[in-house]
Amino acid sequence: MFHKKLKKINIQNWIIQLPKNTMQYVALLRGINVGGNNKIEMKKLKTVFEEAGLHDVTTYINSGNIVFQDAIRSQNKLVTLLEKAIFENFGLSIKVLIRDFPSIQNTVQMFPSDWTNDADMKCDVLFLWEDVDNEDVLSQLAIKPDIDEVRYVPGAVIWKIDRENLAKSGMKNLIGTKLYKNMTIRNCNTTRKILHLMEEQG
């Protein structure tokens, strides 16, 4: 009997090349793993993103920050895809906000390197949905200029305050408002880390 000789291929040496127009994104999930509600395991979430056809998926802490690459979908289509995938796999209706690398880079560049989130200072990035993403959003915030330092950058509001003044800050009045429901918040340390992860992928 004739046997055709097959050439062995070492699949470990295969390299999957993504299209040149591949974009880097971060998906920011709103309101997961807060106070025991909307629980989502990051390891499973990573798998869900991969099964949705996304590449180089990396998750960072339980607040729902997922860095990935994609070349074929618009940001709006990514939102639809991911909200549907999360609902189908976790049974949760979670709002997803997508930001690309230039947007995250621009946001981080807008706050000084000494703005941090630690025992003495609170510094948050309020990522905005499109409906409220304009500089006029500052007029809807109860900013106290003597203690709150607030900046708008396209896509976000950056809010810094010394923790000793936290109880007097206008930030506490934000929770529960209509505006609050159209943002997802990360502290500045987390935002810098997201940028770092995207830079590593690039």
Overview of this protein structure:
The chain has 202 residues and is α+β, with helices and mostly antiparallel strands. It is built from 4 helices and 8 strands; from the N terminus they run βαββαβαββββα. It folds into 2 domains: 21-103, Alpha-Beta Plaits (2-Layer Sandwich); 105-187, bacterial protein sp0830 like (Alpha-Beta Plaits). The protein has helices at 42-51, 75-90, 101-109, 188-201, and strands at residues 23-29, 55-60, 65-70, 96-100, 121-128, 149-153, 156-162, 183-187. The relative contact order is 0.16. Residues 1-16 have low confidence and may be disordered.
Quick structural summary:
Helices cover 24% and strands 24% of the residues. It contains 4 helices and 8 strands. α3 packs across α4.
Query: For the report, how would you describe the main beta sheet?
Result: 4 strands, antiparallel
How far apart are the first and last residues' alpha carbons, in Å? 52 Å
Structural class estimated from helices and strands: alpha+beta
Morphology call: globular
Q: Please report which band the strand proportion falls in: under 5%, 5-15%, 15-25%, 25-35%, 35-45% or over 45%.
A: 15-25%
Number of domains: 2
- Give the topology string: H per helix, E per strand: EHEEHEHEEEEH
Number of helices: 4
CATH architecture tag of the largest domain: 2-Layer Sandwich
| Overall residue-averaged pLDDT value | 91
Low-confidence stretches: 1-16
- The strand count comes to 8
Strand order of the largest sheet: 2-3-1-4
Q: What is the CATH class of the largest domain? A: Alpha Beta
